[in-house]
Amino acid sequence: MPTPPAPSAKLLQLLPEAVVQTDALWQITYLNPAWHKLTGHSVEAALGRSLLEFVHPDDIGTMRSGMPVFRLRFAGADYRWVRLQLHPETDAAERVISRQGVLIEITEVTEQVLVEVRQRFLRLLETIDGVVWEAEIGVGNTFLSPQVERLFGYSVEEWRADPNFWRAHVHPDDLEQALVIDDAAYNATHSYAYEMSYRLIAKSGKVVWVRDLCRAVVEPGRPNRMIGLMIDVTQQKNTELELVRSENRYLLATRGSNDGIWYWNLRTDALHVSGRFHQIVGLGDCDHVHDGGWRFLEKLIDPEDRGRVQAAYRRHLAGNSPNFSVDFRAFHGAGRLVWVNWRGLAEF
Predict the structure, then answer these.
(1) Taking the model in full, what pTM does it have?
(2) Domain tally for the chain?
(3) Can you say whether the dihedral through the CA atoms of 174, 167, 135, 59 is positive or negative?
(4) C-alpha distances in angstroms, 104 versus 10, 84, 101, 135, 341?
(5) Pairing mode, if any, of strands 96-105 and 87-90?
(6) Which structural domain range is residue 189 located in?
(7) What is the CATH number of the domain that holds 93?
(8) What does the pLDDT look like over 259-298, one tens digit per residue?
């Protein structure tokens, strides 16, 4: 039986539904007359333009991701809900070369339902303690959740008005490394997840530490895009920095003190000693961790004093003394005995 012929272009011209065709980059390549009847835009004026120009800015990201329901700008600048299920045509290498579909207005039937779904979606986003975002090369952010204003002070509109907004507000000291990671995602050949930490300058001038959990999305026939979640980790970073400062102050204090500082983890038997501790017993001047804490001390303490030293710290560990302090003779690295005082406090 012979194969029936494909529908002719003349038939497409007669269809009452609007038929839309775009290339891989969303440029409109074909419209039938029903497009003008439905949208009010002339076919001639729309051909060659990007279909995304007619899509509501808030819906571009979801529409590009494959959502067939979105708002389309009709003549007169009003947006109406439509359904456009685009079917991609690919080449031998599975690269998209065109998309075709039928455009139907669904405003009257589903607008209230869609509004409710969208509101639920936005309320869900508001429960996330971070900024959900989507971005595309050359376009900038195509979606940002409302928390962006609470965390950084900038409105969604301010952020999306400039494709380079994010790059312009990353802290200068972090920008170079952030751009290396960002550019790698834009030029990736496969999808992958990644994360980065950097500082962002808020509208108030405050510096906000950000942990960005991202995913590069690579799809045939379209520019790479990224989706992610920005989390404010300023408090965590400040805590880490304060800990580093405290450790530095501790190091300065121990170096300026005449006492040898030590820390003994009785569970692992690791004994941490300062450089001054080693100096006192003639074993150098560097901090060190002795994996066998008691073995090290046993070799250090004069045999005649070992029992007395053990009894002192065991009484303390048993709760029979508020701390312990014991004098004993220690073997010095030079071969002589030196008297030292060993004192400490157990932490349970």
Answers:
(1) 0.45
(2) 3
(3) positive
(4) 20, 7, 10, 28, 89
(5) antiparallel
(6) 128-237
(7) 3.30.450.20
(8) 788 888 888 888 888 888 888 999 988 878 888 888 999 9
